[in-house]
Each structure stands twice: as C-alpha cells, then as structure tokens.
Amino acid sequence: MAKIDTSMLLPKGIRVRGNSIVVQTRKQVVHNGIVNTVSDFKSVKLNLPKGHTASEYNDAFLVALEEAKKQKILAHKHIATHGVEAKVKVRAGAVPTLKEIFDIVFKLRWENNKQEKAVLIYADDIFAFFPKDIRLDEMQTHDNYDNFVAFMQKRIIERKANNLSTFSTRTTNRRLSVIRCCIAHAIDKGLMDYSKVLSPNPTHKHYGWRNLKEVQIAKKNTLTKEQEHQVIAKAQELGDFLFAHAYAWLIDTGQRYETEFFKWNLKNINFKNWTITWHREKTGNDTENMPLTKRCIEIIKNYKTVAMQRKDQRVFADLSKHALEDKFRKYAKLCKIKDHTPYITRRTFCTRLGERGVHPAIIMDMAGHTCVETSAKYYIKSTDVAKKRAMKTYQMSDEEFDGEEDRKSSLIGHNSKNK
What we know:
hpI Integrase, Chain A; mainly alpha; 4 domains; disordered C terminus; 49% helix
C-alpha cells in the first residue's frame, strides 16, 4: 500500500515536515490604526510505531491532520482574541491540557467500572471537536461552548448507528458532564484557577458548561395484539415464515435485536426447563433462566434439527441485521404501523408485562436494565389496555380485590402437573 499523497490533502498553512505536521497561521490585526501581521506556529507529531508500514503511516497521518486542522482554528481564535499580544500570551504553560486532565480523571473515576465503555465513547466525541493539547483555561470561551453543542447535535444525527436520525439533548449533556468533571479536578488540585472558568460565578456549579434543557421524549409506539397478529399473518401470507417466527420471538423475549437476538444459539437453551440464558453486551451482565413462552418453545422445536447441523447452532442464522430491518420497514408500510422498527418489539414486551401488573423490579431484570427508572421511563407505556385494567381494579369492591389478591398468592409456586 502506497503512502498518501499529502499535497492533495493539506489545507493552506499546513505542511509535513519529517514525522510531524507543521501548522503556520498568519492573521492581520489592527492595533492603534496600524495593520499588523501576527503569526502562530505549532507542530503535531505523527504517532508512528517502529518499523511502521505504509498503511500505518497513512492512518497516523490522517489522525494528525485532523488534530492540525483543529490547532489552526484554535490559533485563529487565539490571535483574534489577543491581537498583537497573541505572541506574548503564549498558549503553552503550567495549566494542563484537556487530554492530560481527562486521562487522570478517567483512571480515578471511570476505569474498570460499568461507566468505562460509555465514557470512552464520550471522550471520542469531545476530542473530535477539541484538540487534545488545548489548555483547559484556553477552552473556556462561549464560542467553544456554543460550537461544541452544535457540533454534537450534528455528529449524533449523522452517526451511522442512528437509523432514525434522532437527537436528544441528554446525549450532549453526558459529554458536558465529562468536561465539568475535568474542570472540577483541575480546580481541586490547584492546576487551574477558578477565575479562569467560563462562568466563575460561585452559584454556577456547571462552571459555564451548563446542561441543555432536556426535551420531552416523544411517545414511542407499542404493538397492540391486533397489529402483532396482522404483521405475522401478512408475513405468512407472503411466505416470510422465518421473519414471522423472528418477529414473534422478539416480542416474547424482549431481546435487543442487534446485540442479543443475533448472538444466541441452541447452547443458550435449557431444554429440560425450557429457559434461555444469554449475555447482555450493553450492560455486561447475563439474563439467567428466562422462561420461554409456548410460542418460543414451538419455534425452537421447529428449527432445532436444522440449527443442530450448523456449526454456530443459530436458529435465525439465515436472517441478517439489515434484512431484519428491511422486513420491519416493509411491514410497517403494508400494515400501516407507525414507529415500526425492531425496537418496537422490546417496548411491547416490557409494556405488556406492565399491563399485567408485573413488579417494575422484575421487568427491569427481564429486560436487562441496570435500574428500574430506565424500564419505567423508556419502555413501560401507559396504554389503553393498562388504563382499562387499572379502572377495572379501581371499581372492584374490597372483597373482590382481596379475593383476587388471595387467588394470585395461591398461584405462587403452583405446580401445573397437580392442576
């Protein structure tokens, strides 16, 4: 693989010198009626391993180039702010860089705990906007705050994994929280003076890096029994039997379709008890001994022989992620169902448990959430069915209600063989 022809990629004022990219900035400023040309010089080293290949050079070059572009923007702002004094107000100094502080805080707060993976994702987004060697005090400008907020919205909407191109201000707020943690640590350790933060008002605990107002989440659709039956019947009519079975399976298990549905196989099934256990990649824990519905048991029986012949023993191996998403879009149009993505089956699973009065802690466990609030806020919906059942319970006499509770209690540990 040949090295990249850098002459075709380099913006004005950026050039390669050895294993570094040199950034030169010149900007004219007016001081006392005289036009002065103020210059700035910075270099960004290519992070190259010993005996690197052409491919490794190209990768390192592209990373360094992005960093150089951010340095050039920062230099323009520095000169625009300080004018002819820009040379005196050097950008190097005792105040640490954002990356230096982040690395320290990461080890102290997030490394090797359940937040580690998420924080690393937040850091990727933060350093996609800020140069890694920007000083913590230098980044304290309203322009940086406003531009970062706008940048995050655009970045999230355009992210490939964001199939619906949606954006929530909570996403930006999580990144802002990481920045605030870095600022707080620097101030606490005497590495930056409190007067240098964006908003030094002591009543502003956000240091000027305030959270955005959280927008009310649009109510997501869940499937009615009629819609579920309509999709399955239409799929069977068109010969999409594999999808019909996958659709029923997703509804009856509540699996996340990307990280769970496509990962389990026959080895996850306990055929004696008809339960399933699988690993939840998102939370890092396991769902243990989840009972299978009669419908899921029939699906397993129908596909067991074929799945046993596969090396991976997957039941739905012939259905890819993109094929599944296409099927959901297809039947959304045919059956005229709004918000008909694979996530609708997971919301339906949780909501139906809620409609039947299942305790939120049990729903949390069956859905694989880390807290009850997640189940309640994002998945358990107040449906017409739930309201009717609530009103039916409300209208019971005390004797009827107590009798119903006694009946439920008597079924705990019920042995169906002695029915």
